[in-house]
Amino acid sequence: MADNSDSNWEEKELGSMLKIKHGYAFKGEFFSDDGEFIVLTPGNFFDEGGFRHKENKEKYYLGPIPPEFVLKKGDLLIVMTEQAEGLLGSAAFIPKNNRYLHNQRLGLITQCNPNHSDRRFLYYLFNSKVVRQKIRASASGTKVRHTSPSRIYEIKQKIPSIISQHKIAAILSTYDDLIEKNTRRIKILEEMAQAIYREWFVHFHFPGHEGVRIVESELGLIPEGWEVCQLGDQLAALETGKRPKGGAIGFEGGVPSIGAENVNGIGKHDFSSEKYVPSNFFSQMRQGIIQNGDVAIYKDGAYIGRSSYFRDSFPYSKCCVNEHVFLLRSNNVKLTQNILYLWLQEHETLEAIRSTNSNAAQPGINREGLNGIELILPPIKLAKQFDNIVEPILAKIINHAKHNQNLRRTRDLLLPRLISGELDVSELEIMIPEAMT
Asked: What pLDDT is stored for residue 5 in this prediction?
């Protein structure tokens, strides 16, 4: 679409462009761990913007639901209240119809006049630092900070012409679309690797299985030549990290310290929640320093047993873990790091790990319990054959994750310059999707 307008920017109150509707106070007595409808919270938003699925942590609602608070795909929401600085003002689009509920801690954004504002531009506007700072400045409260629609309406910001809004949104959404495509590829590759693991190690449908006898073992029937082992006998290292007195620091310049919130699967990392330890503290650490190929397990708290795979310099080439995380390194004979990680993703493995917890007050696992968990391993030749098959798949996952990291970095560099008008788009010939106009 050709640009037929000038690039003038005009200072406007946000209330002249949009309206915000508060959500519904869903009653806690109807919350459940499962159900059809999910009550959204600020935890469903990334700090930099965008929708977050809270795996195993969603709040489902079983009570009566006013239909006007059932969200539709494409609805734009903003965080209106938070207990810790970071998410207030963050915006996200709803990914599905008739799945999510709009609660009172979030605001639903609607346009006053679609001919004067682009919805995706508004999304990026709210996720820009300059507007987020103004929203935070409008908030009140000590323990729980909150803002209101009327306070947001009063915020003044320079806004470009509608054509320039379309162009800015088109540029930035290109990055987000690529990130989403890579994220879908990662999910497909994860499922592929896990399916191969399950065929070989659960159903015992490995190459040549037809000619192998099935024999008894302490874990039931297994192929002849396979054996039941204790995890500890197959590990070269099982260690945890630490933090300096007073905890990790929240600024860049030190060494990243990875905690339980970022032990959540291969290729997944929330860089916005990173903490750091001072370089001199890191240099004195003897354990908990991540090596290439380390598998990590969340060892205490509500989600013990959750795991990640740190490899190929992702998320960092130099980093460590804190005291809430175990690092596991296999002896790489029958148990390779690839087999170890995929074994940890199985539901039965997770249940076995969690069953070792003996602390009701603060759930947790220890070295002794983890070392004693039993697993079934194939002969060395089969282990290597399996490794050769899944290694390219897992490597592709990390490549996509790195690509996403670079895309986010570039988008985040462009966002403030485009939103402020520092980069002028008025003369750029940009194809604008019909959906935007």
From this structure: 44
